[in-house]
Known about the structure:
Layout: E1 4-9, E2 22-31, E3 59-67, E4 69-73, E5 76-81, E6 85-89, E7 95-99, E8 105-113, H1 115-121, E9 132-134, H2 139-154, H3 159-183, H4 187-201, H5 209-215, H6 220-231, H7 235-253, H8 258-264, H9 270-281, H10 285-291
Antiparallel strand pairs: 1-2, 2-8, 3-6, 3-8, 4-5, 4-7, 6-9
Amino acid sequence: xxxxxxxxxxxxxxxxxxxSVIIHTLGHHVHPAYTPYPDVKHPDSHLFNxxxxxxxxxxxxxxxxxxxxxxESTGMPPQVIEAGTIILLYPGVWHRYKPTEDTGWEEYWxxxxxxxxxxxxxxxxxxxxxxxxxxGFNVEFLATFERLFDVVEVREESYQKLASFLLLxxxxxxYTSVLLSNQKISRKEKIIGEVKKEINxxxxxxxxxEQLAERYHTSYAWLRKTxxxxxxxxxxxxxxxxxxxxxxxxxxxxxxxxSEIAVQCGFESVYYFSRIYKTKMHVNPSEIRKSR
Length: 292
């Protein structure tokens, strides 16, 4: 792969806020194998590193059209990302991703906000805990992105309105792909999706997984086996990882003591919290607080 970049960050003062979808950033990058990620010329407003991850202020569509890598977010263990995958990033949701070192990848992205964007992505078929959409090598999707770049590069009069229209086309393709994908979801995937949703809503509480299984008219053994099969992790590990990610956010974003954070996140003591955090995250929470 050769290096190829197109980055556009829009001046917030000149954005037409009356539009139903508003573009904040737009980019295309061919990232070669065996080079650090993200690229050092990535826009400062969206730069991140793998250790800390990040959360955005706007929605973002990330399309990986070549190569492969890994993606992880709050409430979701690491997922292998293949070529032809769309990742939907939601405001305020912690995440991180990177290409596999020996493949690199080619990525397109567009960051946006607006009333229609919020309305569409809050529909029942979308879920911040299931942000991955597999569309394959979608010619229409790529062509719409390229037209969007052409409009933004020229920046003729009313280009923001035309760019907004093209973004609506992208969202339409994503919406259609999600609906078609959801039609193929099996009964057991629907149950596990609902269970994940309940765990995310009660992340800082003790959860009786046997009672949870009863509510969905399944056995506890079936739930444990199927959850591991679909998510790649156990019920307890999924719940624990979610609590640790929430704790990491609180360490970065608040001045609460580690003892207070341990209690907020449902751990029995700060000692147990620190020990399990070091085991799972390979760093002491006190070290994160000191670096902050």
